[in-house]
Structures are given as structure tokens and as C-alpha cells.
Amino acid sequence: MSFHESVVYQIYPKSFRDTNGDGVGDLRGIIEKVDHIASLGVDLVWLNPFYPSPQRDNGYDVSDYCAIDPAMGTIADFEELVARLAEHGIGIMLDMVLNHTSTAHEWFQRALAGEQHYRDYYIIRSPRPDGSLPTSWGSKFGGPAWAPFGETSDYFLHLFDVTQADLDWRNPAVRQEMAKVVNFWRGKGVKAFRFDVINLIGKAAELVDGTPGTDGRDAYTDGPQVHEYLQELRRNSFGQDQDSVTVGEMSSTSIEACVGYSNPDNGELDMVFNFHHLKVDYANGQKWTLVPYDLAALKRILDEWAVGMQAGNGWNALFWNNHDQPRALDRFGDPVNFHAESATMLATVIHLLRGTPYVYMGEEIGMTDPEYTLMSDYVDVEAHNAYAELLATGESAERAFQIVHSKARDNARTPMQWDDGPTAGFTDGIPWLRPTNQDRINVAAEQDSERILGHYRRLIQLRKSEPLISEGRYESFDAGHEAVFGYLRTLQQRRLLVLANFRGEPAGVQIPPEYADGTLLIGNHDDAVVSREMTLRPYEALGIVVEP
Predict the structure, then answer these.
(1) Fold identical between 1-96+319-370+414-465 and 173-315?
(2) This prediction's pTM
(3) Residue 330 falls in the annotated catalytic set
């Protein structure tokens, strides 16, 4: 099966299922829930990092690439999970964090101890002649991107947390180590890989400040050597498997760059994530703000990426949710008044687009942001830092909390809600992050109603059975509509019109005559009637197919 026909299910292991009562999810918890995963019809399970880590960035600060964090389980547990999923025809996609290591990694510790071989693994620079930092780059987690390198007078680069030291991919030894890491997991039966912020590995030999106001992003993002490094990595590792599947997470990227990364003629990656569509509720591009999302911008960005990637023969990874984003249902829907309608509308939009859909755990039952009321409910250091910074800028405590509550990464990290028990069926202990509305939203209840879960299963099955969806071309429809996002998919003489009302009020839309005679392929209402003049109910979505 081509990855065009596939759907990926993302699991944040820490929050999926805990089997030993310590309040933290583990690999055995995933094994326990394989039947639920298989029931969705997905083809791959993407696991967020489970490697040994100090957990300064929730496992994205890796201290050993070829082991399992004891809190998550053992290599034997992992091998059992691979085998159990394989029984259902499901593969595993591992998260490869290859731009940086934890400063606790053996390589960095040996560099600190004075071993030149390992010092050359990292980006270490002297201060400028005036004693200032090597560049003016800012860390994506706040503050400068340079930190003192041990007792020396030099600095090491960390584009993320101060404990995440950037690797120097210009060093062939580093690139060889990265291929070894991928090959280790290939040896465990893994054929799919997600590469974290992989477009940041192409930093130049001479580092410059970049454009003022960008924190240096334009000086280190999408460097020309990224393509060369990815081609080499593919040749030396995953490219040796004909059925490998790869996706790159791209930070602050462009359509042009992503076409290059994912055009199969270039021999790099199969598909790419970008995040532009999830910044349409940022005031002036700033995350920690509270404004209604801009539907016109959302539609424009989805359309531009669909058109641009298609034109260059690139391929998008499609998603609304992941471990770093608040729940899309709260951002773009109305979980209070139109819970099921919002959830299924968003699913319909993504799953019928050109690209490979990703489903984040809990999305398939309509999980929402937690109903927290205190900052002490949040664990993520980013949320607490943002709260403090908002207070420092003069925001009231109430307003600062509202902003954090709308954007915090922990919103997506609350435990998977399996049942309506006190800990949502996640653990017999005290969960590391508190669930809040499992009395209303949980897998057991959704299994009975199938209102949201059943819709996801139908969409996933359609991608496998309908080449029109997996291979059809994309075209915009009625781009100027104030409430409805519409698009067309075509394959030879077959055509599909997708309409989705993003508002909580009815929306009228006029469709071409040939579609008025079409057939309803799927909709989030059982009683939808196709006609020339359609009135879509709040958050209604449907697909109309026309046969030759």
C-alpha cells in the first residue's frame, strides 16, 4: 500500500495508558490498547520519543538514541509492540530527534571532558571580538541560543532548551552516527520515521545574525545542504527499505523548500509537516495572544499549500492536532454547542484533502482542551514561562491564564480518556496530568454512539478504497465564501466536491449543476440532501461524488 492511501495514528506514550500505576504511560499500555488502534483502520502508529532523557523537553532531549527510557518499558516491550501491531498490518513510525542531543548525552559529556572528536559533533563558537555572543540568534524557548561551553570561554548552540545542544551535521562523523541510529531501529522492524525539525540541520560553516527581528531564523532554516544531508541519510539507512515511510517536521519553512524535500525525484523524504495553518489565531504572529482565528487566512493557507505542493509533486502530511498544539476542536469548532458536528467536520476536511492524514490520540473521540482553572494544573515549563512573561508585560492574572489556557501544549497531553472513571481509565495511580471531562467524553461512551469514532473509521476506509481521495488532484472551490471551505478532487472523469461549514450558523452555498445530480459519498449528518442550492447546518461537512 502506498503512503498516499495510509493514515497515521499519533500516540504520546506518556499519556496513552499506564499499566504499572506510576501515573505515566508506558509501552505495555500501548500493547494493551492495540485492538482499539487496529479498529480505526490506520496503517502506522507514530510514537513520540520514548528514549532515555532528562525530560527537559518531554523526551525531545535525548540522552541515548538506541534505548528505551526505563519509565516507558524495555526493548523487549518494544519488540512485543512491533509484533502485536504487525499482526494487524500496522507499522511503527519512530520520532528521530537528530538536530540536537541532550547535554546529558555521552557525546556532549565527552566533549565537555575535552575530547576533540566529540567536541566536533556540536556547534561550538568563540565569542565575537567585543566579547558578545557568536550570533544574535534567539532560542525558540526564549532567551539567547548560545550557552557557555563548560569551563571554556566558548559557547555552544541550542536552538531549543539550554540542555539541547545542536549537532553539527557538517561533520561526516555526525551524519554517520545518525544513519547508525536509524539503522538500529530498522533492525527492530521499524520502517517508518518522523524527523524532528529536520530542516534546521543545514547550518552554514560561517554563522551570521540573520535579518533583524527574526531571531536568526532565516540564517539557519532550510539551508541548502539540508537536501544533500537527507539524500545521504536516505541512501545509508531507510532508503534501503522499499516500503519505508518518512515525514519531516519543518520549522518556519516554505512551500518551495517542502516541494524539494518531498518530491520523490529528489530521493529525500515522502512528506512534510508545516504549521502555518495553526498560526491563524496568533495576533501579529505571536503565540501567547488571545484572538479569534481568521477563517479566511486558514482557508487561504490550506489552499496555497495544497496547490503549491501539488504543482511541485510534493506531498503534505495533513493534521489538525499533535502533542505541541491545543486541541483543534476548541480552536476551530464549538465543543460546547456542536461537539460531534465540529469534530467530524474537521476530520472530513483533512481526510479528503490531497496528502496523508494524521490522527492524534483522542481526536477520534472528540477530546477537548482540559477544563483547568489554575496554573498549578499545568506541568509544561513553556506554559509557566509564558504565564510569567505575560504578567511581566502587565497582563492581569485572569487574562494571562486565559491566554495560556487557550494555547498550552499540555492541552493535548492530558491522558487518553478510556472511560468515565476518576482517572479516565488511564492509570490506577495518580495521573501525571489531570483529565477533566471524561464523564462526557471517553472511548467507552463513543464505542456505544459511534457518532465521532464511526465517522473517523469511515473516512480512513474511504482513503483506502477511493483512489479519487488518495490520488486525485486538488482544486479550490468558492474560495471567497465567508463560512464554507470548499475544494474539488478529480481523478480522470471522477470528481469529488467537499464542503465544510466552519461556523455555528447555517451557511448557504450554490454548487455546480453536475454536482446537484451527484451522490453523497460521506457526510457528518445522515440526512443530508444534495441540491443545487444547499444550506449547510452549523459545522456540517460532506463530500459529493460525480461519476463519469
Answers:
(1) yes
(2) 0.97
(3) no
